[in-house]
Known about the structure:
The structure is a single chain. The protein is α/β, with parallel strands linked by helices. It folds into 3 domains: about 5-245, Aminohydrolase, N-terminal nucleophile (Ntn) domain (Glutamine Phosphoribosylpyrophosphate, subunit 1, domain 1), CATH 3.60.20.10; about 250-445, Glucose-6-phosphate isomerase like protein, domain 1 (Rossmann fold), CATH 3.40.50.10490; about 445-600, 3-Layer(aba) Sandwich (Rossmann fold). About 35% of the residues lie in helices and about 25% in strands. It has an 8-stranded antiparallel sheet, with helices on one face. The protein has a 7-stranded antiparallel sheet with strand order 5-6-7-8-12-13-14. Helix 16 links the parallel strand 23 (about 470-475) and strand 24. Helix 4 (about 130-140) crosses helix 5 and helix 9 packs parallel to helix 13. The longest helix has 22 residues, at about 435-455. Fructose -6-phosphate binds near residues 309, 355 and 358.
Amino acid sequence: MCGIVGYVGDKECTPILIEGLRRLEYRGYDSAGVAVFDPSKEGMTISRVVRCRGKLANLENLLRDSKPTGRTGIGHTRWATHGRPSDENAHPHKSGLVSVVHNGIIENHQILRDGLKQKGRVFTSETDTEIIAHLVDEELKVDGKVTLREAVRRALKQVQGAYAIVVMADNMPDQIVAAKNASPLVLGLGDGENFIASDVPAILMHTRKVLFLEEGEIAEVRKTGIEVVDLDGKRVERAPKEITWSAVSAEKAGFKHFMLKEIHEQARAVTDTLRGRLSVEHNDAFLDGIELPDVATLKKITIIACGTSWHAALVGKFMIEQLARIPVEVDLASEYRYREPIITKGDLILAVSQSGETADTLAAIKEAKKQGAYTMCIANVVDSSIPRSCQASLYTHAGPEIGVASTKAFTTQLAALMLLAIHLGRRTKTLKDDRAKALIQEFLTIPHKMADIVGLAGQIQVIARRYGHARDFLFLGRGNNYPIALEGALKLKEISYIHAEGYASGEMKHGPIALIDEAMPVVVIAPKGPGYDKVMSNLQEVKARDGKIIAVCTRGDTDIGSLADECILIPETAPELQPLLTVVPLQLLSYYVADFKGTDVDQPRNLAKSVTVE
Ligand code: F6R
């Protein structure tokens, strides 16, 4: 994610930048920095960059003794994507005249970096952001008369990927330039001063008059006004908006809870997981250059994880076994190392963890590494303990997850596991060209379909109110939707404190059917696809015992309506990708049940976001 702020005006800007960054720390907190124009003795106005690893408090300590005193500046709080959290990788990045802060991921960073190196450019960080500083500086040097806005426009013509950037250039202290593609950026219009931020909370204490930048727009921001152009340099005119949210609700982007905000963010988060890693042209998935063990000798993969991440791992087993035909074992990290696992040298052990700090998963991966396994992780927090212990890390790029109940972290884990499955399947050659092409094309539509499902929130809220009084819930699913039944039950338990069980639908007759009566809501995951007919038979069994059926089913399914009391209709997708969609209505259902019951949704009792004890 990352948080960005910028200021041009007559006030001393460092305190304004720091206060803005504090309001954006929810977007990232592994390093922070500012660049502020400091008038120098020689009459040149140059930007002074102060940045460091760690939370904002570390930056404040650094600034305490020597604060830049200028009136134009930019700031950044980082959530690492390219390059671990470190002083060198902290933003702003400076090259020659140009200082830049960035939120996003540059997809063609390697090609651009190589090209710039050939021109003699020296890089001092591992980030993709530094490339932008070099590109803009090149444009300013090549054409001495070019404006900063035009230099940024020319530089961005070469860049592919997601970015929100704010740029300033030495000796042009009266302006900063902002540009956006896929990552958010908002301009705040003040009186004789103007602001830039990733999100409204950072500027709300200064102004409520804002202009949200749209894709491909570039803004030249001066204290006297703002001019916006598109990537072709054409003027854009748009009226500003008035923000009516309170500061507290602005942090949640107007949502009542972080969990709801994060459910809504999933389309963006999954897009970021896929960014630059899926290629229709090459029919392949790329894993940031990770060198996996040779598939010819790879006998088995073991995935270890806890809680929601364990449910993602269970879905991952389906994905990898179906597409790559490599056997996969899934283990609870808390059990794994106490059962004397059989690890053969060269086995691939994959940890899945949002926080990268879960003590059980960390201990299990260390044990596996000690015994000679090749260790890899899928994690969200860059350079956290688990990635640091593994030989390879694939990051989900979901951004910070604040709600204790995991939502966007889960769906981005599923997306990362699918990338891995496609990557392996292409190398074992079990995933043939045609199937790969169709699957990749469908995979790319998933974010759009997730956003579509989130649009069903109103209907799901009504269902939640209707059944929110129940004492118990049952969740049923088959195949790769069985782990989604487990996840649906876990979500409901942890935030609404209602007892819930997830079952493989075929197992119902072996026990849980005894629980069913008219007071028992049964949530059935029944999208069209393999196993659909069998799930329909299970539904008949529930109906015959007067159970109340809430079905998650495919749009256009005209059969299920006669059995189910409630149908949540979701878009069709490939069977392998269904879990990415079927889980979304279950997240919304548990959210609205909990909200209806008035529980502490974002911080449910007895739970912690990161479980660092065994
Ligand atoms: C449930 C939840 C937990 C975590 C589990 C593992 O909503 O968030 O079950 O999934 O504690 O945490 P990570 O993924 O950080 O290892």
